[in-house]
Amino acid sequence: MQNQIPVKRKELPRSCYISCRFFPESKSPTVLRYPKVWEMGFLDLLVVALMPVLKVLLVTAVGLFLRIEKINLLGPEAANYLNKIVFYLFSPALLVSNLAQTITYKSLVTLWFMPLNVLLTCLVGSSLGWILIKITKTPRHLRGAVIGCCSAGNLGNLLLIVIPALCEESNNPFSNISTCSTNAKAYASLSMAIGSICTWSYTYPLVRAYAITTREQSSIQSSEAASEPSSDSCTEQLLTPSYSQGSGKIKLPHTNLQERRKIPLIEKMVRCLEKVLVPSAIGAMVGLIIGVISPLRNVLIGNNAPLRVLGGSAALIGQAEIPVITLIMGANLLQGLKRSEMNVTAILGVIAVRNVCLPLLGIGVVKAADYFGMVGSDSLYRFVLMFQYAVPPAINVGTMAQLFQSGQGETSIILFWTYALASISLTLWSTLFMSLVS
Q: Which family does it belong to (predicted)?
C-alpha cells in the first residue's frame, strides 16, 4: 500500500518489531510495538518445549518395554532396588554437584525470592490436591499419589533442559546467548535444589502418611496406633518406615502409647528431623554450603581445584538419576495400564491443577512480586519464576509410590498423561510468560 513506509530492520530496537504507518486523518507516523518473543514463532517455541518432554516419553517407553513379561528386566523387585539407589545416592549426588558449580553467595542473596516462590507452589498445589481428592472421592491409598502430583513439580530436570535451550535461540527475548546461558544454569540449579528440598521434606511425608495409614488399617485394624496421636513424632501418620531385607516392604513399629510418652524431648526432635532431612535435602544443603563458602568451592570445584576429582565423581554419579527414574516410571506404567483403580476424573483434575490453575496463579504471584520490586529487573529470572508453576509433576512422586509399594501403576498413569500434554501446555504458557516479561 502506498501509505505504508518500510522501516529497515537494523533501525529497530532489539526487543521489538516496529511498524510505521501513515493514517490519512493525521498524516503522522504511528509506532506499534510488539514483544520480541513473537520473533521466535510458535513453531520454534513448540520445538524447544517439545524436545525435553519427548525425551522423557521415549525413555518411559523403553522402561515399559523392559517390564513386559517376555523381557522382564525391570520387574517390581529390580525397580524397588533402583528406587533405593536413586533415593540414597543418585539424587543427592546430582544436587551436590550442580549446586556447588553454579551457586555462589552473591547469586544466593540475589535470588532470595525463589525459595518462597517454590514453597508457594507446593503449598497451593497440595491444597488443590486435597480439594480434588474430596471432590472425586479418590480411594485412600491413592490420595497420596494425587496430592503428591499436584504438590511437587518437575523443578529441576525440565528447567535444566528447557531454559538453556531457550537461551541458545539467537532471537531469544532475554539477553545475549552467553549471559543468558550462564544465568539459566544458575536459576535451574537453584530451582532444582529448592524443589528437591520441598519434594522430599514436604511432599514425601504427605505421600508416606497415606501409604502407612492404609497399611495400618489393613494389617492391624483394631490397633489404636492408627487413630490416636503419637507424642514421639510430628504427627501419627509420619512414622518412619523401615525396609526388610530383600522384600522392600514397610514394617510398622509396634510400641504402646505409654512407652512413647517416656521418650525424651530431644529424641523426639531428632526423629522429626530425620523425617525431614532425607538424603536429597541433605545433598542440597551440602551443595549450597560448598557453593557459598569460597574456600571450599576453590578446593572442590574448578579445573585447578586440588580435590576436583571428588566434584567430578559426584557429577558422574548424579547424571544417572534422570534416566533411571524415567525408566522406572515406564515400568510402573505397564502395571497401571493393566489394572488401575484411579478415577478418570482424578486424572483430569491433576492435569487441570498443574496445567491451568497453578500457571494462572504463577502469573499473579510474579506480577505482584515485580510490582513491589522483589524480583529485580532480569526478565529471564521472572520467566523462570512463572515457569515453575507450569511444569508437570515431579517424577520423584513415582519413586515415592514405588518405595511404599502403594499406587505405583496409578501414579505412573498420572505422570504419563501429564507429560504427554506438557508439550502443548508448556509451549503455550512459555509463549505467554515470555510476552509478559519482555
A: Belongs to the auxin efflux carrier (TC 2.A.69.2) family.
Which of residues 44 and 10 earns the better pLDDT score?
A: 44
Going along the chain from its start, the domains and CATH numbers come out as 1-35 (no CATH), 42-437 (1.20.1530.20)
pLDDT at 218 over 60: no
Where are the strands (E) in 196-308, listed by range?
242-243, 250-251
Burial of 322 (0-12, 13-18, 19+ CB in 10 A): buried
**Dihedral-angle region of residue 270 (phi above 0 means left; psi in -120 to 50 means alpha; beta otherwise):** alpha
Q: Tell me how far apart the alpha carbons of residues 9 and 52 are, in angstroms, rounded to a whole number.
A: 33
pTM: 0.70
Per-residue pLDDT tens over the stretch 370-428? 888 888 778 889 999 999 999 989 888 887 887 787 777 788 888 888 888 887 888 88
First to last CA, the chain: 31
From 91, 145, 59, 62, select the one nearest 408 (Cα to Cα).
145
What's the rounded Cα separation, in Å, for the pair 64 and 329? Answer: 8
| Contact present, 391 and 421 (Cβ < 8 Å) | no
**Tens of pLDDT, residues 219-266:** 544 444 444 444 444 433 333 444 344 444 444 444 444 444 556 767
Cβ contacts of 75 within 8 Å, gap of 6 or more:
67, 331
Under 8 Å between Cβ of 331 and 74: yes
Q: Quick one: which H or E segment has residue 216?
A: helix 204-219
pLDDT in tens, 290-318: 888 888 888 888 888 888 898 889 889 98
Helix (H) or strand (E) holding 168: none
User: For residue 131, what are the contacts with CB-CB under 8 A and spacing of at least 6?
Assistant: none
- Cβ atoms < 10 Å from Cβ of 32: 10
If you ran DSSP here, which 8-state letter would residue 161 be given? H
- Residue that has been written with the C-alpha cell 539459566 in this structure: 184
Angle subtended by helix axes 358-371 and 379-387, to nearest 10 = 150
E strands, 159-317, where? 242-243, 250-251
Q: How far apart are CA 196 and CA 394, in angstroms?
A: 9
